[in-house]
Amino acid sequence: MLRSMLGVCLAVQLCAAPALAADINVGIILSATGPAAAIGNAERNGTLFGPTEIAGKKVNYLFLDEASDSTAAVAALRKLYQESKIDILVGPTSTPGSFAAIDPAVEYRLPMITLAPVNALVAPVDARRRWIFKTTTNDDHEATPLFANMRKTGVKKLALIGFGDSYGDAWSKVSADMCAAAGIELVADEKYARTDTTVVGQILKIIAARPDAVLIAASGAPAALPLLQLREKGYEGQIYGTLGATFGDFRKLTGVQGDGIFVPLSPAVGAASFPDDYPAKKAALEFIQRYEAKFGPGSRNIFAGSAYDALLLIERAVPAALKAGEPGTAEFREGLRSAIEGLKGVAGSRGVYNYAPNDHTGLDQSALTLGKLDKGEWIAAR
């Protein structure tokens, strides 16, 4: 069992003695417990593939649990920096934890690669956000292929049902904006808790609004609930999902009822069905092969891919950073920050990363395509 964030600092890959000053120390803060634990543990699995040595320097991966709590995330960061002098941080998992971690990261002049999706964490790049990067796509990246398909298929009325938290709220905003731009009427916007066991009341309101399509803004197993109850109540219109539906037990829980749902698809999940000329296809297939060899067929997921890619970026940035200073120094941390900011054309599991002084998002619209669930498999829609 993973220890709490106040427990012993664990090396993800190395069961080693305390690091020497010349070692590269990578801090990893993820949600091993709490509401975001399923995501955080998938991300932790993704960190197990990082290199043990880069440019002749030993690499130590030091893990603490943020427990899906922003206060714990800040305490974990301070502990890792003060006790282990980490050179860079991967995480936190959660959006609140990532926002909270910005202040201490800036204080320590510590580069941070957050695994949270909200673009406000990294944009606009200013004196504070110059230290923050991410390996996830934005909500508008996800929405674009979905709404393009809605326009193509003649959707005029859309209903939304999503989590009653910041995730669902973000999708309420992006859906309203996209509907306005596409000339689609948003006829319902319902919310539910991740722990709810029924959404019948919300589904009845949606059906009464007679939408041409329904968008489910949820992730993992809880995303299955609205779909199953829509079908149970006889809804025959098109159903769309967000990227989070490609994670966890959604496929298992929905079975044949889930077939045909459209989603934004990442190469970390569906690379085999991407065109051969897709720039990140080879890298994504390598991730899938390595990950599923360790964790089993069908285990690949976007969250593990985000963490896997974060370590890939660090591996690419270290050689240049070593020219600025030795690990454990402010010069090395600034060197890492500058080197990541200059990375171009890095193919990872989730797409091709291109950073710039005014862009710390890394991924763009090309990281996602329209996908669908077909006979229990996530594939690119043709």
Automatic annotation (TrEMBL):
Highest taxon, organism lineage: Bacteria
Signal peptide per UniProt: 1-21
UniProt family annotation: Belongs to the leucine-binding protein family.
Domain Leucine-binding protein, first and last residues per copy: 24-365
Record-linked SUPFAM superfamilies: Periplasmic binding protein-like I
Claim: Phosphoprotein is one of the keywords in the record: no
GO biological process terms held by the UniProt record: amino acid transport
Keyword annotations of the record: Amino-acid transport, Signal, Transport
InterPro entries for this protein: BCAA_transport, Leu-bd, Peripla_BP_I
Name this polypeptide is given: Leucine-binding protein domain-containing protein
